[in-house]
Amino acid sequence: MKIKQADNQDIEQLAMLNAEVQAVHVNLFPSLFREASHEAMSKMLRQKLEDESTIILVAEDETQLAGYMILRKQILPEFTLINERKCGYIDQVCVSEKYRKKGIFRSLLYEAKRVVSEWGIDRIELDVWSDNQSARDAFIRSGFRTYNEKMMLNL
Q: Which domains does the chain have, with CATH numbers?
């Protein structure tokens, strides 16, 4: 399995992989999420490739993408009560179901750590949906810990 930075030639496969992730989100929270068309997702991914603060890492198995991670450099400015916060932010991550449990997420995360370190940042953050237990478990096994939680009250 090879980890590399995505380019425009990867867009079609990335959009197909994203459909797997989006289906999970739509299933968990249909009031929040909707399926995106392949065309709309491809457009969004092209925009992310052009964004200088974002990279897309892909895990490639010969001719097929097995997974991806969208990683963004995030700098939140200080204000009255909070210090400036810099982090590498994992915006999306997906490992295709047929490639799970083969160390692909671990390999993507290893490369993300290297990139974030090159940015001069010593922290990686992400959000995970509380009901997505398999993703939560994978992140915890990889050393992530909860430090802030969102809550909601439906009316």
A: 2-141 (3.40.630.30)
